[in-house]
Amino acid sequence: MSTKIAWLQPIWSHYHIARAKAFQKNNPDMDLVCLAISDICGEVNASDWLVKDFCNLNHVVLFPGMAYLDLKPLQITKAVIEFVIKNKINVLCLLGYSKREIQQIAIGLRLIKPKLSLILFSESKKDDFPRYWWKEKYKTKLLKCYNTALVAGNIHKDYLMELGMNSDAIFLGYDVVENHTFNPNQIKKLPKPINDNYFFTVNRFIPRKNILLIVSAYAAYKQKMGSLAWDLVLCGDGELRPQIEQKIAELNLQDVVHLPGFLQQKQLLPYFAHASCFIHGSITEQWGLVVNEAMAAGLPVLVSKTCGCFEELVIEGFNGFGFNPHNIEQLTELMIDISQDNFNLEQLRNNALKHIQKFSPDYFATGLKQAINNAISYEYR
What we know:
Structural class: alpha/beta
Distance between the termini: 24 Å
Number of helices: 14
Strand content: 15-25%
Shape: elongated
Largest sheet: 7 strands, parallel
Low-confidence stretches: 44-48
Helix content: 25-40%
Order of helices and strands: EHEEHEHEHEHEHEHEHEHEHEHEHHH
Strand order of the largest sheet: 3-2-1-4-5-6-7
């Protein structure tokens, strides 16, 4: 009899579909159910997260037509536990542990169905937020509900180990994208959205994404480089858009800083295809999947050192550079060096493309298979 696995997501996105497809392709002997709480998020500009086509994957939506943000934690908990019991699920994968319903599901199933294998998907790291001892103590107890974990990278593994999870029960590979979608050999054929060279970034326009610092660094860069300066493209939208527009106007950058707005993945591909360098400047970021996408498009990257992906994806001087997200001058100098070709840009591009190949949906599939095998090999203690 095949192992029945349910992977619970509040909302399924193209990121999750790519990973699930790779897992099912590599493990046809396992029965995976893509379990969605809802098919409507209820958040503005969240449509890119939603998918209608599950690519022939077995999937169930618990609350179709109801916005996830309108559902009560107890509603969700009850529905998930009933689904697991009714469908005789052997392994349940849960994303994170901060949401109340996830805590309730983990604790409830551990009590009701102690032989069920629970796998934690996590991309938390210690420096994401201020940590308080009493919350950390609660997390340590909560983690005892889980058999194993699949995390984004080593910095995320270290945090779970600090909370008390055994290192042998933690596996890598959670944060990946479908690299071939961004392959430069394919997307370079797309029409250029901008004729000039440009730095490129994709973000929600919220404070922690640090867009205003990027604009300030670019202004200093433009002042030093003059007519030789590359343009800047800021894709995205959000609450800070009026402030960003005002900042651009104050610095007289309207002709060289472009704001295409919120774009779906297919609409973003031409920008990835023809960018000269990618910037990701978040003050805090658990991972940063847009950096995966940029590297898969063959772009050199300038990445904030506080991003969770930095230690795994960026090899300084090889495929990009890191910077302090509070240091305008540091980012400005990197922009100058990159655009003056002080580094071999072609080599940086090739190295970015080469390095990201490890971080593929197959990497996720391998990590999840290891986590499942480890979880079901031992009786829960």
